[in-house]
């Protein structure tokens, strides 16, 4: 099965099985940006607790977080794990936002320029940067994560040594460049990855992608 046909079948099956995912949860582009940093190496339930702390203290704005001492910020986001490290990364992101004239001015940059600015921030890698580009700026870039890698490798669409950008190119080259599609597709891969495609014990028989390309 050609890559384009396989990717389309994966999407169709997952959408039929799970329905729309309405991802990414966040009340504003800035909240999405904060969540993208906080979700590194943790699950979303922990991120929600950290964001709830910031909201309860009325701190979820660039100005409020920038004025907050690093150690205090770290305590507010403690539920997200690696709180000292992530507080420093958030401060780096806040510095970029200020340098670019605010959230709106930053996110209005062309896709390539925005991505380069984000990747230059210490602590922001490709997945975090692309999550911000797609979900906060609503620009068409495909986000690749551990689930994406695992699912595609198990279905022999990529090799073990495929890197982030090669996997991303597979989607970008074979799918229509569309924000809504990339948003939904990534969310569906996360959903099936969590429910069926575990690292050590995949539940292949019950997975909606079972016998992909053979039906």
Can you give me a brief rundown of this structure?
This protein is mostly helical and 215 residues long.
Task: Describe this entry's structure for a reader.
There is one protein chain. 61% of the residues lie in helices and 0% in strands. The protein folds into two domains: 3-22 and 143-206, Endonuclease Iii, domain 2 (Orthogonal Bundle); 29-136, Orthogonal Bundle (Endonuclease III, domain 1). With 215 residues, the protein is mostly helical. It starts with a helix and ends in a 20-residue tail after the last helix. Helix 2 (29-38) packs across helix 3 and helix 8 (111-119) packs across helix 9 (126-136). The radius of gyration is 18 Å and the shape is globular.
List keywords for this structure.
single chain, 215 residues, mainly alpha, Endonuclease Iii, domain 2, Endonuclease III, domain 1, 2 domains, 61% helix, 0% strand
Ranges with pLDDT <50 over ≥5 residues? Answer: none
- Taken in chain order, the helices and strands follow as HHHHHHHHHHHH
Shape: globular
Largest sheet: none
Q: What is the C-alpha radius of gyration, as a whole number of Å?
A: 18 Å
CATH superfamily of the largest domain: Hypothetical protein, domain 2
Secondary structure: number of strands: 0
Q: Name the CATH class of the largest domain.
A: Mainly Alpha
Number of structurally distinct domains: 2
Straight-line N-to-C gap? 12 Å
CATH topology of the largest domain: Endonuclease III, domain 1
Mean pLDDT rating:
96
As a percent range, the share of strand residues is: under 5%
Name the CATH architecture of the largest domain. Orthogonal Bundle
- Overall structural class, as computed from helix and strand content, comes to mainly alpha
Protein name: DNA-3-methyladenine glycosylase III
Keywords: 4Fe-4S, Iron, Iron-sulfur, Metal-binding
GO molecular function, one term: catalytic activity
InterPro entries: DNA_glycosylase (IPR011257), HhH-GPD_domain (IPR003265), HhH_base_excis_C (IPR023170)
């Amino acid at each position: 099965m050609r890559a384009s046909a396989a990717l389309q079948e994966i999407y169709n099956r997952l959408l039929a099985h799970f329905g729309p995912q309405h991802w990414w949860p966040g009340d504003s582009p800035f909240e999405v940006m904060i969540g993208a940093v906080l979700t590194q190496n943790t699950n979303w339930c922990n991120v929600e607790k950290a964001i709830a702390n910031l909201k309860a203290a009325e701190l979820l704005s660039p100005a409020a977080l920038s004025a907050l001492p690093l150690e205090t910020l770290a305590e507010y986001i403690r539920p997200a794990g690696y709180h000292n490290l992530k507080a420093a990364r958030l401060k780096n992101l806040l510095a970029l936002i200020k340098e670019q004239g605010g959230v709106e001015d930053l996110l209005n940059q062309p896709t390539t320029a925005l991505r380069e600015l984000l990747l230059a921030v210490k602590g922001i890698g490709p997945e975090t940067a692309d999550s911000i580009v797609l979900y906060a700026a609503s620009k068409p870039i495909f986000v690749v994560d551990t689930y994406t890698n695992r699912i595609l490798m198990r279905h022999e669409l990529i090799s073990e040594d495929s890197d982030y950008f090669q996997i991303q190119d597979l989607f970008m080259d074979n799918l229509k460049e569309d924000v809504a599609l990339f948003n939904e597709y990534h969310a569906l891969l996360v959903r099936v990855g969590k429910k069926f495609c575990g690292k050590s014990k995949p539940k292949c028989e019950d997975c909606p992608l079972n016998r992909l390309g053979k039906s």
